[in-house]
């Protein structure tokens, strides 16, 4: 079909010519540079791979595989059409296919870990159903930390999983455990941590111990009650399940504090819509006023050391692979590094944002040896999320997210854990582990490198969306937003011009992004369709870890709001580090 018709009213129609995807001028020039008489030979393609795509180890065999893949009739080379087909094809992704390539022999505290929050909820935090389905979905995506809130059931003789004090409908704990066992290692062989928020009596704890032991058997990591001097490494824990919790007495104390916090925050609107609001800025505005009231906060879920464990069922106590603690005494006590043992500490999003103002370097120092978990504030009823970079740039391993939602913050989370083969563990940059000098996130550093991004063209919307999805009366008016999520000095968003009435937009625009901390930076890409009278329509998104971004001209597949890959929608882009 060469033309497309839109009905404007019952007696009038508009017809638009359908363009054919064509190589941009830059691509044509590059083809001419590396080809002879309209054909790019194996040698020419190999030179292109080395010089433009920066694939230093590319061989003639690699070039031949590309020629074979585009099914071109000329076995000894490719013409412009076949060359463009290769560039825009699945064989040319933006991230290197390296598999798991980080050093996995360091302690667990040396990794960012893909972490879920209230992993059993299917929707909002107040009234959605509890189920094992979101747990399964998270594990399939590569999430490595699953959170379960465990409560006595209505007859007090069994254990349910639910969000306490809400209208969420429960799911049986045993069902969740069995699903975790079945799907734990589908996406990754590396360990799955189950964090238990425990509201049980000792007799039900004993029942949980029996369930967990029988369900997981030999794959359960049970080191006993002793504290580690250093956490084991992910490599040694492959295909193991680890239980992490703290004694129930602490939760009883915490509930009163949490109720007070909830009452004080109730009625405040969430700062992120279902998908549309921008990722919160980290340049200081949201934490500037917290210094004064930090010391006035109640001490949430503190413990008295061994005294708080007197009611623990012994079988249950022996299940705990990573013991969570929060000693009395406020932030200074919480963040004190014990050279003889390591622990896991949990902190709410609000408390963490306040803590980084006065204790930023202490948090970085603490997270070199110990594990810190930050979870969303209790007023995120819609299961939205916060900016994960505030956690990562302070060394936080478990930035806990509501995985069942969607939105820009969650897209960043998905992007970060595309790194290291999608195994759910990403090695922290060396500067966050340096024992000699503690990284200070507040200090602006010199530019290390500059990423130059060219947005050429896009395609696929015509096949993945109905022809009136974006506009009932004409083809869509697309523009692309591209930018960086990272430390405050690096974070920025820019956008292309709007191209009207075109299913195959060709922007051919160049952007430059100076990077002071490229190790933590993510490339954000979004496509929108301009709407003069209403909110702009969504046309796809992706986030890519810059540490694994391939130089050269690449086909960048786009994803839906929920993070599901479109069948056909993608952009042709060029990435250069200058």
Which fold name fills CATH's third level, the topology of the largest domain? TIM Barrel
SS-derived structural category: alpha/beta
The helix fraction, in percent, is 10-25%
Beginning-to-end CA distance, first to last residue: 43 Å
The total strand number stands at 25
Overall tally of domains: 3
Strand count, sense and closure of the main sheet? 7 strands, mixed
Folded structure, characterized:
By secondary structure, this protein is α/β, with parallel strands linked by helices. The chain has three domains: 15-92, Recoverin, domain 1 (Orthogonal Bundle), CATH 1.10.238; 108-249 and 315-432, TIM Barrel (Alpha-Beta Barrel), CATH 3.20.20.190; 444-577, Immunoglobulin-like (Sandwich). Helix content is 24%, strand content 24%. It is built from 14 helices and 25 strands. It has helices at residues 25-33, 42-51, 60-69, 80-87, 133-141, 173-183, 202-216, 248-265, 314-317, 331-334, 349-369, 389-392, 408-416, 461-464; strands at residues 3-9, 12-17, 40-41, 77-78, 111-113, 115-116, 145-152, 159-161, 171-172, 192-198, 220-221, 241-245, 320-323, 344-348, 371-375, 398-401, 425-427, 449-459, 478-485, 492-495, 506-515, 522-529, 537-545, 552-559, 565-577. Strands 7, 8, 9, 10, 11, 12 and 13 form a seven-stranded mixed sheet that branches. Helix 5 (133-141) packs parallel to helix 6 and helix 6 runs parallel beside helix 7. The longest helix is centred in the middle third of the chain and has 21 residues, at 349-369. The radius of gyration is 26 Å and the shape is globular. It starts with a strand and ends with a strand. Mean pLDDT is 85; it is low at 250-276, 285-301 and 304-310.
């Amino acid at each position: 079909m060469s033309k497309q018709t839109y009905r404007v009213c019952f007696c009038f129609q508009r017809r638009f010519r359908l363009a054919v995807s064509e190589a941009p001028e830059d691509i044509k020039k590059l083809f001419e540079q590396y080809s002879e008489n309209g054909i790019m030979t194996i040698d020419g393609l190999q030179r292109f791979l080395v010089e433009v795509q920066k694939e230093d180890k590319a061989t003639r065999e690699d070039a031949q595989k590309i020629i074979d893949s585009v099914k071109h009739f000329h076995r000894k080379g490719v013409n412009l059409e076949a060359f463009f087909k290769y560039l825009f094809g699945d064989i040319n992704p933006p991230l290197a296919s390296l598999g798991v390539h980080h050093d996995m022999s360091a302690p667990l505290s040396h990794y960012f870990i893909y972490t879920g929050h209230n992993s059993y909820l299917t929707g909002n935090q107040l009234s959605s159903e509890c189920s094992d389905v979101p747990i399964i979905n998270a594990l399939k995506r590569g999430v490595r930390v699953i959170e379960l809130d465990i409560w006595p059931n209505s007859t007090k003789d069994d254990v349910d999983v639910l969000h306490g004090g809400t209208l969420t409908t429960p799911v049986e704990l045993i069902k969740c455990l069995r699903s975790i066992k079945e799907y734990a290692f589908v996406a990754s062989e590396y360990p799955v941590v189950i964090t238990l928020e425990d509201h049980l009596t000792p007799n039900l704890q004993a029942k949980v111990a029996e369930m967990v032991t029988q369900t997981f058997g030999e794959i359960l990591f049970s080191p006993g009650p002793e504290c580690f001097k250093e956490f084991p490494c992910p490599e040694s824990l492959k295909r193991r399940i680890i239980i992490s919790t703290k004694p129930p007495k602490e939760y009883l104390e915490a509930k009163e504090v949490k109720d007070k916090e909830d009452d004080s925050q109730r009625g405040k609107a969430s700062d992120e819509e279902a998908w549309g609001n921008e990722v919160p800025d980290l340049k200081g505005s949201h934490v500037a006023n917290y210094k004064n009231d930090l010391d006035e906060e109640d001490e949430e879920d503190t413990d008295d050391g061994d005294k708080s464990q007197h009611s623990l069922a012994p079988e249950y106590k022996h299940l705990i692979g990573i013991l969570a603690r929060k000693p009395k005494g406020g932030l200074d006590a919480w963040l004190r590094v014990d050279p003889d043992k390591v622990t896991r500490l949990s902190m709410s999003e609000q408390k963490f944002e306040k803590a980084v103002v006065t204790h930023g370097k202490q948090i970085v120092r603490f997270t070199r040896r110990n594990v810190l978990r930050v979870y969303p504030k209790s007023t995120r009823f819609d299961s939205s999320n916060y900016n994960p970079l505030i956690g990562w740039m302070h060394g936080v391993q478990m930035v806990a997210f509501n995985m069942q939602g969607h939105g820009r913050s969650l897209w960043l989370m998905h992007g970060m854990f595309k790194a290291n083969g999608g195994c759910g563990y990403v090695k922290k940059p060396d500067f966050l582990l340096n024992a000699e000098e503690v990284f200070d996130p507040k200090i602006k550093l010199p530019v290390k490198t500059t990423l130059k991004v060219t947005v050429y063209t896009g395609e696929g919307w015509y096949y993945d969306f109905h022809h009136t999805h974006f506009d009932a009366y004409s083809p869509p008016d697309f523009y692309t937003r591209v930018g960086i999520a990272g430390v405050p000095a690096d974070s920025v968003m820019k956008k292309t011009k709007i191209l009207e009435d075109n299913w195959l937009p060709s922007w051919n625009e160049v952007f430059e992004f100076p990077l002071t901390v490229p190790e933590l930076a993510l490339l954000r890409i979004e496509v929108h369709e301009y709407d003069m009278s209403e909110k702009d329509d969504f046309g796809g998104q992706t986030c890519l870890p810059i540490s694994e971004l391939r130089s050269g001209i690449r086909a960048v597949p786009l994803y839906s709001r929920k993070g599901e890959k479109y069948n056909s929608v993608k952009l042709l882009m060029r990435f250069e580090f200058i």
